[in-house]
Design a protein that fits this description.
This protein is α+β, with helices and mostly antiparallel strands. It is 52% helix and 18% strand. Strands 9-5-2-10-1-11 form a six-stranded mixed sheet. Helix 1 packs across helix 11, helix 9 runs parallel beside helix 12 and helix 11 runs antiparallel to helix 12. The protein is elongated, with a radius of gyration of 32 Å. The relative contact order is 0.18.
Length: 427
């Protein structure tokens, strides 16, 4: 009998809510925008973090370090030879006990350019050329042993450079290129001359082939086998008439056997006047870069949250005022305060659940649209993916929507359950 009583009362409450709930739908409409904004904010935060780590700062393993020379203090001190790590420092770093598997990234100091295209259409651009030993890619590229000069020069392209080109292409009416499209291009490397320097008569031309891509090395230019650069310099440096060394070391990438020693190693390397990055440094840079973005997104979400809560609160106060006579009659007929509060909470929960679903899918499809068109509006974010995985964060945002609606209606429901019966009847 008790269960039957509870079910019958619950049925009456649900039927009553279905009749009166549509009146509060419009005032609670802000929940849709709040949940949509939250979904968009979460996606942008995660996507921007991933983009900065992989495309801009590079992605290191947890025990990997990257050492680079410091930039000149003024433009007048700039020279291609000066921005390098000298052999004495390399030898000293190699001697640090806990650093293992150290790889040198060298830069060809000769002027160079690339001529790339297909179907008779070509684009020529100046390009910096760097080199690294093939063993560096043994954990990231399956066929790393073939990364050697053998009839053509294999080229590794930093993902960072691919993004720069696509940003330029978006503003210049050129086609965007992905990894597969690059494999179809015919690329010729010209060493010894560029748009600004060098003697075209003494330049050397080489056939190249795109071999792979890297996120760890973020140098401004393409990467070739280091033995190709050393061989070229040994055979041709006299003809190019360079002011300094034909090549120089611009980066060291190695592993630390004990990650607890990274702070000590960092201190030693920086005392040599060099920069050093580790996974912790990249995370720190990413956090700084995301701070302003997160602050703006949080501010927008907070404003929508505040306006939504106020809107729902005022809506339910108006509902209490409009239903005061009916609520008073219910109280006189024996309806308890708990029943009235429960009715308001159930109504608010139903509205929150409906708007939570609508808000999530509104945000999801806005993200899909932004992901397809954002690079057209802002070319600099080429490569930034904003889409959410299906139903990612759905349960959290769905429950948050229900909780927000219920909390906003809680105080008005208490007012409703505590109405002065005689004053309400007199109205």
């Amino acid at each position: 009998m008790f269960i039957q009583y509870v079910l019958s009362n619950l049925s009456l409450v649900v039927r009553e809510i279905i009749k009166i709930a549509p009146k509060t739908f419009i005032s609670s409409f802000g929940i849709i925008f709040l949940i949509a904004c939250a979904a968009i904010s979460l996606s942008i935060k995660n996507s921007a973090s991933d983009y900065l780590k992989k495309r801009v700062f590079g992605e290191l393993k947890i025990n990997q370090i990257k050492i680079t020379p410091k930039s000149p203090k003024s433009i007048s001190n700039f020279s291609s030879v000066g921005i390098a790590i000298d052999e004495k420092k390399i030898k000293k770093i190699s001697g640090i006990k806990d650093i293992t598997d150290l790889h040198k990234v060298i830069r060809l100091n000769a002027p160079a350019s690339l001529k790339a295209g297909m179907l008779g259409m070509y684009l020529k651009t100046d390009m910096l050329i760097s080199g690294v030993d093939k063993s560096f890619f043994k954990d990231s590229i399956p066929n790393w042993k073939q990364f050697k000069h053998n009839g053509y020069v294999p080229v590794i392209i930093p993902v960072f450079i691919l993004d720069i080109y696509n940003n330029f292409a978006a503003t210049s009416g050129l086609p965007a290129l992905g990894p597969k499209a690059l494999n179809l291009l015919s690329i010729e490397m010209i060493i010894g001359s560029s748009s600004f320097t060098g003697n075209k008569e003494n330049s050397r031309k080489f056939r190249t082939k795109v071999f792979g891509f890297t996120e760890t090395i973020t140098t401004a230019g393409i990467i070739v086998p280091d033995d190709f650069i050393m061989e070229f310099c040994r055979c041709n440096s006299a003809d190019i008439h360079l002011a300094g060394s034909c090549y120089s070391c611009i980066m060291l990438i190695g592993n630390v056997s004990d990650i607890s020693k990274i702070p000590l190693i960092t201190k030693k390397v920086r005392s040599m006047g060099l920069n050093i990055e580790s996974q912790a440094d990249i995370a720190k840079k990413t956090d700084k870069a995301l701070f302003v973005l997160n602050f703006i997104l949080f501010g927008i979400t907070a404003v929508i949250f505040f306006l939504t809560v106020i809107s729902i609160f005022n809506s339910y106060l108006a509902v209490v005022y409009n239903r005061s006579y009916i609520l008073s009659v219910q109280r006189m007929l024996g309806a308890s305060k708990i029943r009235i509060i429960f009715m308001f909470m159930l109504e608010a929960g139903m509205i929150g659940a409906l708007y939570g679903v609508l808000g999530y899918f509104t945000g999801y499809y806005i993200l899909v649209y932004m992901n397809n068109h954002l690079h057209e509006w802002i070319p600099v974010v080429q490569g930034l993916s904003l889409t959410l995985k299906p139903f990612q964060y759905f349960s959290q945002l769905f429950m948050a929507s229900i909780a927000l609606s219920i909390i906003s209606a809680f105080i008005p429901s208490i007012f409703a359950s505590s109405l002065n019966l005689f004053k309400a009847v007199k109205r």
